[in-house]
Amino acid sequence: MTGRPPKAKAPPAGRWGDLGMRVVSGLVLAALGVLSVAAGGWVFLAMTVLIFALMAWELAALSDQPARPVVRVAIAALAGVGLALAQASGSGLLALVLAPLALALTPRRDGLLLAAYALAMLLAAHVFVALDHRGAVIVVWLVCIVVASDVFGYFAGRLLGGPKVWPAISPKKTWSGTLAGWLGAAGVGVGFVLVEGGGWGLVPISSGVAMASQLGDMVESLIKRRAGVKDASRLIPGHGGVIDRFDALIGAILAVWVLELIMPLPLGGGL
Questions:
Q1: Distance (Å, rounded) from C-alpha 253 to C-alpha 259?
Q2: Does residue 114 register a pLDDT over 90?
Q3: Taking the model in full, what pTM does it have?
């Protein structure tokens, strides 16, 4: 009997199947982040505007019924222009509502929910640029917390497993990974206290900011669940969409913003 032998089945990806792609994409993102933070000024602003405009495009694409590419691009442009205007002038803060209004007023499912999320997202972007104006150390601290929480949570969750935090919304998120993320963030706080001379109150604050970052991730998971998708888009290999990568940062930034309305952050200076 002749013919080609049957193809061997590829081994299952397993719990680490996405690790390689995540690492490569993460290194590229990290390199771009380091360059933008080091350059500061208009480079950091331009990078932030680009990232959050892409996030607005993804929000529009998640709920666009039927698909209207022109509307998606218009909402992304409104987000970018609104953020730039808000930075140019204090009175320009009202421009942050342009993209959220467009999401709320165009036909789509969960328009009000998406508009509220977009407003929080753009407010976080505005605060993020303002923090950079005060010195790169705060921005680096924030990013390190989000990265540590994500990395510690990823490995602990896959190695230890255990009960899920909210399986209906985020099936993979475990309590073991969540707690590991808090510990990783506390370690970042210790590092910045020792290296940058921050107050020791920064350690519990770092864990608290990690909790907020995880909440940001859960809120985005809720939005995706309601839209019936796994990823916001496929723009970042191994991570999904831009929102999928930066949703936790939104929660972290807003937590710091609220905290500083109450008390000064025990961290300052430059790197």
A1: 10
A2: yes
A3: 0.87
